[in-house]
Design brief:
The protein is of the alpha/beta class. It has 10 helices and 6 strands. The protein is globular and about 50 Å long.
Length: 218
């Protein structure tokens, strides 16, 4: 049975990058670029119309920047997953993107195969940070701890599997519980750690020593 096609919108103010990304993704039968946009305002209109599975979002855009666009999308269209793809990897941008609800952050210099893998992962519910960014975020983290000691043993088990990149249904299978129960545990974990996404949860858990860096590797 063929895998469902992942519908993608590319948002970037450089036509060359939009065209290059389209060529990379359209070479794979399970990926399809269904639209693009060269500004934040145009992106919102296109995404609202097309309702793609994944949006590849640049940060620096004419008018509304990519972080603000992402914040609006995750508020208004929570089913659309945003993967930030930027030439800039300063910590403030990465943190801003994650806090706005982005499911991941990749550099424009990443190889095409890594981008393809990231799009598939994000579409499947996994959060993605390009290698090296997680460690830097941990080093620069100055966030206060949010109820770290309050995580239950089951919540810690779910958190470890989140760090390993498992989808919620895979976690359910590993722990022999329902997907709905996993969803509830994730909500509790996010609330207790004071975060809004699985990527932020893993970064916060490592920074507060709930997890070690190796817990995020499969």
């Amino acid at each position: 049975m063929d895998a469902p096609v992942i519908r993608v919108v590319v948002v970037d103010d450089h036509a060359l990058h939009r065209d290059g990304t389209r060529q990379i993704l359209d070479a794979y039968p399970d990926l399809q670029v269904v639209g693009d946009a060269n500004s934040g305002e145009v992106a919102l209109a296109v995404i609202n119309q097309l309702r793609p599975d994944v949006v590849l979002m640049d940060i620096r855009l004419p008018g509304m920047n990519g972080i603000e666009v992402t914040r609006r999308l995750t508020r208004d269209l929570p089913g659309v997953r945003v993967l930030m793809v930027s030439a800039y990897d300063e910590d403030e941008y990465v943190r801003g993107a994650l806090e706005a609800g982005a499911a991941g952050y990749m550099s424009k210099t990443a190889p095409g195969k890594e981008l393809v893998q990231a799009v598939r992962a994000v579409a499947g519910g996994t959060s993605v940070l390009q290698s090296g960014l997680t460690a830097r975020l941990l080093i620069s983290s100055r966030q206060p701890e949010h109820g770290a000691a309050d995580l239950s043993e089951r919540e810690l088990a779910v958190l470890r599997l989140l760090a390993a990149g498992l989808h919620n249904r895979e976690i359910a299978g590993q722990l022999t519980i329902s997907s709905r129960t996993v969803d509830r545990h994730c909500d509790n974990i996010y609330a207790k750690l004071g975060v809004g996404s699985r990527t932020e949860a893993v970064v916060r858990a490592i920074s507060t020593k709930l997890l070690s860096v190796g817990d995020g590797e499969r």
